[in-house]
Design a protein that fits this description.
Layout: E1 3-7, H1 11-22, E2 26-30, E3 45-50, H2 53-60, E4 68-70, E5 73-78, E6 81-85, E7 92-97, H3 104-114, E8 118-120, H4 128-133, E9 139-140, H5 146-152, E10 156-167, E11 174-179, E12 187-192, E13 195-202, H6 209-223, E14 231-238, E15 248-249, E16 252-254, H7 270-285, H8 287-297, H9 301-313, H10 316-328, H11 334-342, H12 347-352
Parallel strand pairs: 1-2, 1-9, 2-8, 5-11, 9-16
Antiparallel strand pairs: 3-7, 4-7, 5-6, 10-13, 10-14, 11-12, 12-13, 15-16
The structure holds flavin-adenine dinucleotide.
Flavin-adenine dinucleotide (FAD) binds near residues 10, 13, 39, 48 and 163.
């Protein structure tokens, strides 16, 4: 079979590569970093997502269990008040990201290598000229990096991020979500396998020093540690329009964040990356089939974008109050739990997929 090139050795790129190699293709992954595990700016890290694991495993054709584990404790801190959440209600899992041997990235890398995938590290594809030289049906899955969006002219918003990563007791396993007037998005802290991670972001504008300090004060109160300093950077995030999710750009096939497989309300992109990697692999062999599958997966997006826009139109204090009321009643709000689980890109796809019932 023909050789397939994949740009970006992250979750989406490796999912596509494993599926194609197992179907007999010669697959080459071009990765910007010198090793697996993405950008050292923000990895290693513990990232979280709701998952219906059995359905996801059946869909992907491989298990992801070694790189993930259930989240044991969760809480929402809305307007400075802590509200515990039972993580099992939303099937919440931790993903270990980054270059450590225990990460999901390292696990997928081993699966890919076992299937015969070739990796070329230190190979960034950064310009329109670089991209134009790659063969048709190349899969591009470069995640939250500007070059991929710019080289393929995929529209994006610039999002502002403040993070801290450090170490902690390896037995700690929790996520705290923070909603307050310091951002129209949110902050979170996580502790997983000895990695401590703090992240505050706003998809519209930078966050002032005073607001970052207010967030850090809440982290000190509820996590019991002082954030020594924040690293600052910007990401491209899929633009907020109902046309955003896209499988194709010219003769290239998109996957992961670049395809817009990212929940437009809560910014969850892990699950969408895996599912869209599988779909990109389908599209290499049969564009029509891949396109139909993609449409099924993203059919929830118009509603999600509308919800996101409605949320953005609320004055911030009102929106924080809404979060507090929702999480105070979370155990009773079956609909909210369903929206969180099923609003994640790809769940609809898994439900509809023949033979997979979740
Ligand atoms: C700090 C942070 C926290 C997050 N937290 C969560 C969370 O808690 N829950 C959640 O669901 N989602 C979260 N996300 C989003 C989630 O990580 C992404 O949506 C997901 O990783 C997307 O997968 P991907 O395969 O598209 O990109 P990635 O997994 O990021 O992989 C992209 C790969 O492409 C490589 N690359 C980039 N540019 C080039 C280039 N020009 N040429 C060659 N290679 C290139 C990168 O080095 C990387 O290896 C978070 C993202 C960040 C950055």
């Amino acid at each position: 079979m023909a050789e397939v090139t994949v740009v970006g050795g992250g979750l989406a790129g490796m999912t596509a590569a494993i599926n194609l190699a197992r179907r007999g293709h010669d697959v080459v992954v071009l990765e910007r970093e010198e090793r697996i595990g993405g950008s050292p700016l923000y990895h290693p890290s513990g990232q979280g997502s709701p998952l219906k694991l059995d359905a996801l495993h059946a869909y992907l054709g491989f298990e992801i269990t070694p790189g993930i584990e259930p989240i044991r404790e969760m809480a929402e801190i809305a307007g400075g008040k802590m509200l515990p959440i039972d993580p099992s209600l939303i099937h919440a899992y931790f993903f270990e990201r980054g270059p450590r041997p225990t990460s999901l990235d390292s696990y997928l890398y081993e699966l890919a290598r076992g299937a015969g995938v070739e990796f070329r590290f230190g190979t960034p594809i950064i310009s329109q000229e670089d991209m134009a030289q790659l063969p048709p049906n190349t899969i591009v899955a470069t995640g939250l990096h500007f070059e991929g969006f710019d080289a393929l002219r995929v529209p994006y918003l610039t999002s502002y991020h403040f993070t801290y990563k450090g170490t902690c007791d390896p037995d700690l396993n929790y996520v705290h979500m923070f909603h307050d007037t310091y951002t129209s998005d949110y902050g979170y802290t996580s502790a997983l396998r000895g990695i401590r991670y703090v992240h505050l972001f706003n998809r519209r504008k930078p966050i002032s020093l005073t607001d970052r300090e207010r967030f850090a004060e809440q982290v000190a109160e509820y996590d019991g540690f002082e954030v020594p300093e924040f690293s600052e950077f910007t990401f491209p995030v899929p633009a907020s329009t109902i046309k955003t999710p896209r499988l194709l750009a010219g003769n290239k096939i998109l996957a992961g964040t670049l395809a817009g497989a990212m929940d437009p309300v809560a910014f969850f992109g892990l699950h969408g990356a895996l599912v869209s990697g599988k779909i990109a692999a389908m599209a290499v062999e049969d564009k029509e089939r891949g396109w139909r599958e993609f449409q099924k997966c993203v059919s929830v997006y118009p509603t999600a974008y509308l919800l996101g826009r409605l949320k953005e139109m609320q004055p911030l204090p009102l929106s924080v109050l809404g979060f507090r009321i929702a999480f105070q009643n979370f155990e009773r709000l079956k609909l909210a739990q369903r929206i969180i689980v099923e609003g994640v890109p790809g769940y609809r796809c898994l439900r509809l997929h023949q033979g997979v019932r979740s």
